[in-house]
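Hey,

The postdoc asked me to send both predictions to you directly instead of through the lab channel. I've kept everything plain text so nothing gets mangled by the mail client. Protein one:
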Amino acid sequence: MQLSEINKKNLTDEEIEQIVYEGIQDSGENAYYGLVFGNSMLIKERVKTAIEAFQQKRIKKIIFTGGTGGVSNQNRDPIAEAIKMKKLAIYLGIKEEDILIETEANNTFENIDNAIKLMDSTYLDKIIIITSEFHLKRCVAILKKKYPYIKVITIPSKDGYSDKDNWFLSDASYNSGRSLVTYEANLLIKYAKEEKIADLEITGFDNKKIFK
């Protein structure tokens, strides 16, 4: 079943997991660019993952993307996410010459579009994307829709509460793993129906309970 065909009002945990995490695996491949998505609440985790990939020589250049108007910037910090990530990466030992930043994007679509403009087309046959595990499929689906010629390699940034193996352990309170992942599942369906992202195939669905 395609994402756009899912019409269930109340998704089960198994269905949410299939929508958000199914088929997202790190192939272990390398790429010239590693694109790191901003999130004001998860900067440390994502920067750490990017540094690990760089130190393992899986990427040669790190691109941090993120402005000040994203939904995760609850405190309205005037410093762009990308700048904060760059400062942390330099503090942790990455040379400034190995970092590119994009500071205007405030959502995932803008993150991708703006970052692609910074990249040398010579190396755009494939890229590595680094973000929280629950966010990877949305990034992949946008890239497949808008830049189908780019091979996408995914590296999950684990945070301990919204990952595939633990998101379901929390309640549905604001910003819990469960709330983030449930929201993401419904957002993927919505965007697929609106044709904003690639209409990915999801297995194992029963559409008997439909929206009324």
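Protein two:
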Amino acid sequence: MAADPAGPSAVRFLGVDTSLRGTGYGVIEAAGNRYRYVESGRVRNAPTLPVALCVTRIHDTVRDLIQRTRPAAVAIEGVFIAKNARSSLRLGEARGGVLAACGGCGVEVYEYPPRRVKQAVVGAGGAAKEQVLRMMVHLLGAPPDISEDEADALAIALCHVQTRTSIPGLAPKPL
């Protein structure tokens, strides 16, 4: 896709790849079957930062991002069962910060399993993170130096856009 703006009919979507210590986010615009990178970033929380402050930083960043970019919807990666119960709990706490920010801003949230996201953007559910990153650079015009967390967030947003428009009547339901 060309790097020019998508135009007045463009709609923005926010994707979030949630993690307590490194939450990635990405905003894309969609106009018909054209997609464009808007911005991306990462909320980094030091390992020494208390969990409550990590969740607050994630919440505040997502809230501010929603207020500034005005996405039509937010897409997040679905919960997966980690081998370590503590890891699953920490992921749930981070997701809580994202969900609270979205709810407070009145934006609907949709979730997609990791394999479905990879299938939508790479064509293979078992794709490597590097493949996802390369596709986000290719499909959206994202900078080649974005982090894997940012690329994953952009892929989640793109998966939502493609799912929402490709299967009439079977669109995902918000959380």
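Summary for protein two, as requested: The helical segments are 51-69, 85-105, 114-121, 129-140, 148-166.

Thanks,
C.
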